[in-house]
């Protein structure tokens, strides 16, 4: 009987050691996280419960509950919390088509997050960005190239997105589901991909077919297969209800169909949008909004609306027990993460800070950058012959732009190498001439380049930089030369020995205006949220203050706009002094001195550089300062963080055309987060390399690829359309004529496309059954051979081609259902095996029901889509039939 009683208590979460203990049950590590969470929540007041349901959960000293902030970022490196390993932006990671690599990246991100968390706790820091609930990955479908946040995704295909996201989540959380390294939070659930300027109020009514065929499969894989412990609901409404108040999404699908037991967090302000003006206006006030969020299953409010929960309970809008359910889910996660236990009991708690930016992690970042390079065109000029080119013109707005390496939601790189400097280092024996060449678009600021700056001696590019602890007074802690003022020090110390939250920099030297007359400048402060008005700077030209930002109590100076104008009477060198101070505990840090080039000025410099060179490398594209999340951008081609056109901006096209007129060979390198219609470059450039926002080693990866030290094998995770006129309106969420799966036109470059410096051939495709019964599995094998002269990697892609007239004509033209990245030496061949499950072989009908359906199918395997005439090798295919039907679980 005694044994039976003990067993009963153990099943309930109690252990024999719990009997007679003086500590409360929630402090007992032997109990289950569920039992501990239930006990802890039962001891809280209603007001304490409400405060624990917002992302900035405060400490409860009487219960020994430390403060915790659920908001931490790890999209492609641990973000906004000091120096971390910076990987290529997510769209570049997707271009690797390397799922195991994504798993290793997730492991690195979570290891560095643990290292930072452990160090933060040792220093009694419990702040935003230093937690273990990572709000990544973004697995929304990049359905339209105009969406500014598409750079954060893994592209346009549910299968590629789902499989890459699964491996990244598994890498983040680790092998033990009961003791995760971190908690992953895939986002934004669901049907979310712009426009940014109306994201707080727009509604999407997806057809049942599109919902289940395109917008949900990757989320299902993240929850059911990868077992993510958290998920973030989106800003927009779906079928008339805000996503964070959608019973369909959060309860019917997540909780019931997918058996999700983790917690749901809102996007920041999404619950506030329930009632706020110019948003959904779904709830009459904050009390109703808070009650609705909790009752519909949104456990954490990134925002402040849940502070109204006590009043909502008192008004009878929900019961306190409803809030208890929410709180227990949140604390189960915190207990599983070991946040209430001594580090000795938690292996992850022993991860040292030295793991941050370890040599192995940095090497993986370089490997990822290498793998992300996609060669779009090559007339034979690449790889560049060593020693052939003695003078190389490196031109374009992305040749020396830090933000073009970083992308958004980025880790903070330490001493990143600009692409132009990487090319200088790689092309030994050649003279590299740099010119910015063109603005991103007319009227858009660029970093003031090193070519416009001179040291105080008048010799050498750049400025003298003095770094101070605290105010810019006395002896500096460090003195060096900075090529330009373009720095990201978000929660990071700019030089050794300084505190990250209290330092100053003084830059002095000369500014060389390219023309006399009025020039517009801009001081761009790095992302600093939340830090208030803790950033200050002054700019002096020839001893006269021309701009100041911040408030000085001593001088009574008020804040002014960071944009300012200077009228230069001539083009001689003019003395410049920039003083920047940063005093924001834990947050922000960084500054960029920018200018707005007058139309046509930079193009002339690019032509001059080309005329003096044997080769032109043009680094063009976009910037995360133009495409991104809900931005205050209104210039031709861009609006609110999104794009209104997908063409390479006219200012950059004009530069390419002017440079091409010199007759010099030209290699175009694209740095961007989304598809570009580079039609002119495709017709006229000798080669085009897509580099994305490639991370801190992106410059080296570009140089290595141009020289052939890295044989490119990346593939496009999105379709590059020839014109925005070829696709539906941006706010139309129907998938008709969108993405490679449904597009009926001829794109500039197809999804899955990418060239190599070697050649591959496919042969002997075999399938295990020419006739299947619905519900059976199909296995295909194929041989791939490197038939070219050098070693290289190939991405073998398997596409399923469903019956054209089947499923009421709703099925995609073709759909990716398998891929493998393999490395082959010259002459080497390998047999690859692909296994397609019944789910892989299924289709979705008009009611959103997924099933295996009868008919004649085929599979095609190759290095690109079947029928891609730009691909260097043809795919091989095999036909089979399916008899009968088989239902597939939602």
UniProtKB/TrEMBL annotation:
<dbReference type="InterPro" id="IPR037524">
    <property type="entry name" value="PA14/GLEYA"/>
</dbReference>
<dbReference type="InterPro" id="IPR013783">
    <property type="entry name" value="Ig-like_fold"/>
</dbReference>
<dbReference type="GO" id="GO:0045493">
    <property type="term" value="P:xylan catabolic process"/>
</dbReference>
<dbReference type="Pfam" id="PF00933">
    <property type="entry name" value="Glyco_hydro_3"/>
</dbReference>
<dbReference type="Pfam" id="PF07691">
    <property type="entry name" value="PA14"/>
</dbReference>
<keyword id="KW-0732">Signal</keyword>
<dbReference type="GO" id="GO:0031222">
    <property type="term" value="P:arabinan catabolic process"/>
</dbReference>
<feature type="domain" description="PA14">
    <location>
        <begin position="458"/>
        <end position="611"/>
    </location>
</feature>
<dbReference type="GO" id="GO:0009044">
    <property type="term" value="F:xylan 1,4-beta-xylosidase activity"/>
</dbReference>
<feature type="signal peptide">
    <location>
        <begin position="1"/>
        <end position="20"/>
    </location>
</feature>
<protein>
    <submittedName>
        <fullName>Beta-glucosidase</fullName>
    </submittedName>
</protein>
<dbReference type="InterPro" id="IPR026891">
    <property type="entry name" value="Fn3-like"/>
</dbReference>
<dbReference type="InterPro" id="IPR001764">
    <property type="entry name" value="Glyco_hydro_3_N"/>
</dbReference>
<dbReference type="InterPro" id="IPR002772">
    <property type="entry name" value="Glyco_hydro_3_C"/>
</dbReference>
<dbReference type="Pfam" id="PF01915">
    <property type="entry name" value="Glyco_hydro_3_C"/>
</dbReference>
<dbReference type="GO" id="GO:0046556">
    <property type="term" value="F:alpha-L-arabinofuranosidase activity"/>
</dbReference>
<dbReference type="InterPro" id="IPR017853">
    <property type="entry name" value="GH"/>
</dbReference>
<dbReference type="Pfam" id="PF14310">
    <property type="entry name" value="Fn3-like"/>
</dbReference>
<keyword id="KW-0378">Hydrolase</keyword>
<dbReference type="InterPro" id="IPR011658">
    <property type="entry name" value="PA14_dom"/>
</dbReference>
<dbReference type="InterPro" id="IPR036881">
    <property type="entry name" value="Glyco_hydro_3_C_sf"/>
</dbReference>
<dbReference type="InterPro" id="IPR036962">
    <property type="entry name" value="Glyco_hydro_3_N_sf"/>
</dbReference>
<dbReference type="InterPro" id="IPR044993">
    <property type="entry name" value="BXL"/>
</dbReference>
<comment type="similarity">
    <text>Belongs to the glycosyl hydrolase 3 family.</text>
</comment>
């Amino acid at each position: 009987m005694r044994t039976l009683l003990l067993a009963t208590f153990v099943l309930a979460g109690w252990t024999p050691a719990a009997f007679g203990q003086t500590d409360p049950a929630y402090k007992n590590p032997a109990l289950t996280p569920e039992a501990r969470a239930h006990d802890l929540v039962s001891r809280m007041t209603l007001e304490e419960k409400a405060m624990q349901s917002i992302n900035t959960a405060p400490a409860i000293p009487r219960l020994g509950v430390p403060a915790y902030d659920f908001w931490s970022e790890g999209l492609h490196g641990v973000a906004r919390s000091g120096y971390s390993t910076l990987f290529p932006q997510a769209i570049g990671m997707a271009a690797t088509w390397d799922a195991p690599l994504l798993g290793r990246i997730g492991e690195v991100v979570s290891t560095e997050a643990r290292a930072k968390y452990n160090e933060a706790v040792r220093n009694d820091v419990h702040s935003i960005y230093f937690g273990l609930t990572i709000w990544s990955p973004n697995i929304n479908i990049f359905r339209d190239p105009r969406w500014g946040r598409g750079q954060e995704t893994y592209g346009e295909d549910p299968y590629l997105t789902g499989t890459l996201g699964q491996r990244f989540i598994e890498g983040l959380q680790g092998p033990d589901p009961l003791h995760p390294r971190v908690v992953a939070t895939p986002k934004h659930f669901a049907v979310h991909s712009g426009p940014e300027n109306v994201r707080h109020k727009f509604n999407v009514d997806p057809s049942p077919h599109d919902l289940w065929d395109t917008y949900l499969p990757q989320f299902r894989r993240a929850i059911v297969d990868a077992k993510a412990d958290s998920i973030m609901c989106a800003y927009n409404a779906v079928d008339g209800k805000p996503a964070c108040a959608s019973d369909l999404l959060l309860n019917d699908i997540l909780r019931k169909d997918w058996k999700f037991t983790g917690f749901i967090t809102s996007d920041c302000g999404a619950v506030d949008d329930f009632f706020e003006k110019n948003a959904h206006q779904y709830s009459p006030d904050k009390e109703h909004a808070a009650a609705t969020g909790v009752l519909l299953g949104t456990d954490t409010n990134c925002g402040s609306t849940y502070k109204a929960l006590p009043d909502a309970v008192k008004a009878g809008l929900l019961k306190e027990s409803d809030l208890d359910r929410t709180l227990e889910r949140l604390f189960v996660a915190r207990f599983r993460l070991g946040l209430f236990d001594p580090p000795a009991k938690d292996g992850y708690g022993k991860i040292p800070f030295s793991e941050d930016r370890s040599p192995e992690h940095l090497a993986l970042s370089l490997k990822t950058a290498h793998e992300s390079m996609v060669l779009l065109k090559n007339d034979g000029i690449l790889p560049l012959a060593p020693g052939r080119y003695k003078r190389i013109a490196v031109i374009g707005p992305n040749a020396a732009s830090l933000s073009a390496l970083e992308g958004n939601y980025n880790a903070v790189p330490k001493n990143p190498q600009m692409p132009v400097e990487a090319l200088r280092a790689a092309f030994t024996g050649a003279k590299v001439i740099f010119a910015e060449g063109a603005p991103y678009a007319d009227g858009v600021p660029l970093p003031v380049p090193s070519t416009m700056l001179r040291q105080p001696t008048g010799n050498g590019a750049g400025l003298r930089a003095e770094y101070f602890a605290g105010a810019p007074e006395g002896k500096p802690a460090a003195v060096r030369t900075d090529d330009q003022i373009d720095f990201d020090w978000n929660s990071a110390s700019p030089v050794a020995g300084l505190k990250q939250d209290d330092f100053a920099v003084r830059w002095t030297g000369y500014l060389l205006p390219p023309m006399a007359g009025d020039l517009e400048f801009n001081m761009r402060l790095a992302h600093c949220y939340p830090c208030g008005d803790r950033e200050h700077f002054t700019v002096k030209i020839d001893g006269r203050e021309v701009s100041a930002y911040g408030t000085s109590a001593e001088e009574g100076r008020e804040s002014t706009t960071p944009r300012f104008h200077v009228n230069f009477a001539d083009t001689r060198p003019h003395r410049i002094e920039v003083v920047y101070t940063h005093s924001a505990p834990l947050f922000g840090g960084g500054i960029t001195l920018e200018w707005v080039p007058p139309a046509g000025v930079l193009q002339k410099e690019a032509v001059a550089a080309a005329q003096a060179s044997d080769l032109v490398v043009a680094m063009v594209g976009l910037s995360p300062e133009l495409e991104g999340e809900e931005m205050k951008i209104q210039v031709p081609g861009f609006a609110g963080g999104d794009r209104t056109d997908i063409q390479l901006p006219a200012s950059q096209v004009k530069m390419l055309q002017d440079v091409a007129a010199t007759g010099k060979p030209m290699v175009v390198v694209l740095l961007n987060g989304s598809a570009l219609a580079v039609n002119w470059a495709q017709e006229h450039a000798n080669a085009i390399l897509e580099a994305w926002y490639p991370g801190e080693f992106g410059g080296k990866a570009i140089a290595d690829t141009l020289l052939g030290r890295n044989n490119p094998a990346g593939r496009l995770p999105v379709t590059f359309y020839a014109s925005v006129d070829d696709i539906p309106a941006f706010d139309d969420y129907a998938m008709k004529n969108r993405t490679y799966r449904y597009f009926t036109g001829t794109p500039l470059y197809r999804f899955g496309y990418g060239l190599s410096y070697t050649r591959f051939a496919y042969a002997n495709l075999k399938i295990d059954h020419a006739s299947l019964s619905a519900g059976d599995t199909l296995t295909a094998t194929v041989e791939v051979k490197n038939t070219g002269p050098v070693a290289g990697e190939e991405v073998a892609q398997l596409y399923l081609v469903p019956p054209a007239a089947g499923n009421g004509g709703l099925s995609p033209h073709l759909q990716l259902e398998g891929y493998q990245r393999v490395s082959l030496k010259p002459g080497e061949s390998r047999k690859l095996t692909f296994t397609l499950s019944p789910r892989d072989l299924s289709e979705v009908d008009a009611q959103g029901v997924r099933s295996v359906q009868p008919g004649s199918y085929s599979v095609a395997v190759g290095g690109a889509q079947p029928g891609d005439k730009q691909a260097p090798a043809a795919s091989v295919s095999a036909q089979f039939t399916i008899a009968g039907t088989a239902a597939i679980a939602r």
